[in-house]
Amino acid sequence: MSIRFDRAFRLLLALLCLGLGACSIGRDYVGNSLRADPKVLQPGKTTLAEVLELFGAPDRIQRRHDGDVLTYRFVRGNTSELELEEPVVTGITFFVYTKRQLKANQLTLFFDDADTLVTFGYTGGVDELDPL
Hints:
The structure is a single chain. By secondary structure, this protein is α+β, with helices and mostly antiparallel strands. It is 20% helix and 44% strand. It contains two helices and five strands. The chain has helices spanning 2-20, 48-55, and strands at 21-31, 60-62, 69-85, 93-111, 117-124. Strands 1, 2, 3, 4 and 5 form a five-stranded antiparallel beta sheet that branches. A hairpin with a 6-residue loop joins β2 (60-62) and β3 (69-85). The longest helix has 19 residues, at 2-20.
């Protein structure tokens, strides 16, 4: 009889644990990924018109007296969460684990007053996100 009770207790405990857990996974995007590879850019040769044709409208334009600065930005965030709670009687939460990551790809281009690319900077952080 104790063997039957032991199996029943283990089964009840396993079902209770399954009923207590909740898990959620989310992914957020802000902006658009780049339409072209920044490696095609050539300071001193690439024009503002060519950049707009290749990459589309920028997220931000800063007007300066000696040329414009264009910024393209794509942000991605991953969230994983595990929550253990008693949902029926008390609603008490026993444990919460949350992992959030936020990374961005950003391309910043500096033009002179003749709309020719002077220099640019690129950071590609989205590829560094851990898989969900």
